[in-house]
Design a protein that fits this description.
There is one protein chain. By secondary structure, the protein is mainly β. The chain is built from seven helices and 31 strands. The strands form six sheets. It has a 16-stranded mixed sheet that branches. β22 and β23 form a beta hairpin. It is globular, with a radius of gyration of 23 Å.
Length: 542
Amino acid sequence: MLITWSNTAAAQEPKEHSELDATVVAPFHAARGERVTQARTFVLRLAYPDEGRSHAVRWSLTLSGPGPQGAVLRRWSGTEQVGADGKSVNLPWDGRADADARERRVLAPDGLYQLRLLAVADAGTPQEAQVEQQWPIQVRRGASTAPKVSAFQAGLQQLPSLEGQPAYRIVYANLHSQTRHSDGGAALDACRSAQDPQTAPFGPIDAYKYAQEHGLDALLTSEHNHMYDGSDGTNAAATAAEATALYQTGLAEAAAYSAAHPGFLALYGMEWGVINKGGHLNIFNSEQLLGWERNALGELLADVETPKGDYAGLYRLMRERGWIGQFNHPAPAGQFLVNGQPLGYTPDGDAAMVLCEVMNTSAFSTNDAETENRRSNYEAACNRALTAGYHVAFSSNQDNHCANWGASYGNRTAVLVASPAAGTPVSRDSFLDALRARRVYATMDKHAQLLFTANGRLMGERFDNHGPLRLATHFSNSAGRQAADVAIFHGVPGGNGSVTPISDQAELTVTPAPGPHFYYARLTQDDGNIVWSAPVWVNQLP
């Protein structure tokens, strides 16, 4: 993932996609030959493509369980010098419950376990970077004890119609990708990392065609807002009119493609911000290009000026204009700062931000068979946003920079769009309305269907409640996968506290304490793929 481009006309800044990358490949099942021991090997992958510099990365991997509240059984840790070429560390686990020699005869009991990775680069310096990941594994020697989960359709039929409309349609979307309009769009045999902006062969129309041919219902090409000058820095020779015209071209191409292909929704937007100064977020529906760069003549290389790193100001503008967004691959610290607080809350941001990316696949994957095993989990950061007070649903995307839009893995952002009649195409407006309503679930499996309700109110809703609250999870999978585990989580919006599992069953009745609460379901399939519901937000009245 070494990034080597240069632009003599561009002011040199830290390059995008030069941050710490840490993932762990964790086989959900043991190999067939390890049925008794349930042993397997975890693979830690570290990379830091920072223009050839190496960084000291301190890491730890813990295995806890069984169950979400299980004790820590094993711990691996170390420090590696990591650069662009990266390092892989193999971590064998023998299936034992304890590393102590006196306990090595004790096998870990059947159940679901959690692996938690924490990687910290340049600890204690202003450049400190952190990555936190969490993935499940299953230990199973005997018969499965899968939880009972009601079918998706049964849950859907219990819902009241939306404003008289008879049904919802699930739109399986990838809401994070790039093309040649910024630093994506390279052919798979030539793609190694991000591209020199506006040089790759494939643009938005190519992306929409590819995604549709590979079974997606919708694709957002989200181009980096600061690359419309043709550089990853600031191109002093850029022409402002050309930058803004390219953005308008993208909007027009998306609209034209959707009109010509009624079964597919083509979306065009921007990925705003930089990793080294606060983090990326997508804006789904802006008709104007936002930016902060100026050319040598002092002309703004955008339609609307938005200072880099000013998230509070951006949220305010988004709320005023009716624009909605998504937190992209959020880190648990150092990103989306407001008054020095990561994922700092503002009422404007709460109104504008509708999604938080809970999982994605490697941005530079060249896999086109949906088998990429470099995947990242951001549930910890999304939970921080929820406890800060944000009303965001979970999303799952691919951040494709290579020409494999939606094909590197089977993960999708699934959106429940109100469908007035069978055969009626999903419109851009109805899709955006569904995002605003947070009628969304994030899935690692494109065949999964998930509903989560509270007293019959659909995930994404906010409502007042008296008395008991019945939480219910409904799940189906058109490819035949079953649930291996389900957990219902609880947190307090605005409390900046923890998010905790409160049940390992698909249904639960609770009587919350007076005040605000949120709940969501996380279901793990029998192949290890995870599906996250959107939360419900409940104000419990005395």
